[in-house]
Amino acid sequence: MGGDSERRTRNEIRRELIDSVDEELEMELDDARAAEFAELIEHKAARDTIDRNLYFNELFRLQGELVKLQDWVVNQKLKIVVIFEGRDAAGKGGVIKRITQRLNPRICRIAALPAPSERERTQWYFQRYVSHLPAGGEIVLFDRSWYNRAGVERVMGFCTDEDVEEFLRTVPEFERMLVRSGIVLIKYWFSITDDEQHFRFMMRVHDPLKQWKLSPMDLESRRRWEAYTKAKEAMLERTDVAEARWWIVEADDKKRARLNCIQHFLSSGGRARAHRATGARTQSGLPALSGAEENVRAFSLLAIARPPSCACGGG
User: Fold this and answer.
1) Which residues are 141's β-sheet partners?
2) What is the pLDDT of residue 26?
3) For the purposes of burial, counting CB atoms within 10 Å of the CB of 34, is it exposed (0-12), middle (13-18) or buried (19 or more)?
């Protein structure tokens, strides 16, 4: 009797584990279908990427660490804001999905604001973002953020040069104010090459399950690649401040970018638990998680770097 019960329990656990893997595989279908369209761009026919088994093993390990981070955030009443910026089709959404996939949506939520309404255009620029900031025990992931003003709004002519200058002058102090209020602020820029963005856009054009991701604005961004590059470099130079640094994620390889960004997020957390335990001042304020720093070095996937004097080329 006892043996039958144990076997049933093991089988149920096995089914649950398989279901977890299937759930991740479903999310991976977008990447898997890339092979069907690889001939669209000849030099992309053979796409280098990380070993699949290594990818899944590391992803599941990192997601387990994210659950620990979530518990720590709730326990310590921390307030965390993570900003995801970058080129169109750079993979920001894929990273956000993997971060939130196994977390409580009441604790870790996504803020992806639509274009401002007529009323919002008359408000203080940061006003509509403030209402989405976290309370104690919450994490908010901004899928694009107030940095729209320095990027798409500037390049597409949705604001004036004076608006942009006021933003670049004001945002460092705005972010310092957030940090002084107890918010942990982390900013990522996802960088891809011109060729890689072209490939991903072509994937969206030819893939019926991805066509909804394309907009006239996306297509126009291809034509204005150099203008976006100049806007990005000016933004990083003016807004990379000690209290809120930018981190660059090289994202031509989606899987490496996902693991890399999540690992960096967790390794940044390593300094905060020590901060809480010892009272020592740290830059990040995030909680420590076991083995994160060692795994960054051992895994050898880091493509995140501080912008050197923010003189960043590429995407």
Assistant:
1) 82, 110
2) 60
3) middle
Pairing of strands 304-305, 246-250: antiparallel
Which parts of the chain have pLDDT scores under 50?
41-46, 270-304, 308-313
102-137, pLDDT tens digit by residue?
999 999 999 999 999 999 999 999 999 999 999 999
Q: What is the pLDDT of residue 281?
A: 33
In whole angstroms, what is the distance from residue 238 CA to residue 149 CA?
Answer: 13
What DSSP line would sit under 132-144, residue for residue?
Answer: TS--TTEEEEEES
pLDDT of residue 13: 65
Q: Answer yes or no: are the C-beta atoms of 107 and 139 closer than 8 Å.
A: yes
Report pLDDT for 315: 79
Distance (Å, whole) CA 103 – CA 109: 9
Q: Where are the alpha helices (DSSP H) in the chain?
A: 2-32, 52-76, 92-100, 118-121, 127-130, 152-155, 161-180, 194-206, 216-223, 225-239, 254-278, 292-299
The CA angle 172-176-178, to the nearest 5 degrees, is: 120
Give CATH for domain 52-310.
3.40.50.300
Q: What is the DSSP string of 154-197?
A: HHTTSS-HHHHHHHHHHHHHHHHHHHHTTEEEEEEEEE--HHHH
Return the number of other C-beta atoms located less than 10 Å from residue 130's C-beta. Answer: 12
Residue 108: its H or E element = strand 108-111
Overall size of the chain counted in residues? 315
Which residue's entry shows tokens 């949506």? 105
Structure tokens at 247: 């981190």
* 8 Å CB contact between 95 and 128: no
Owner of token pair 């690992």: 263
**Contact at 8 Å (CB) between 77 and 137?**
yes
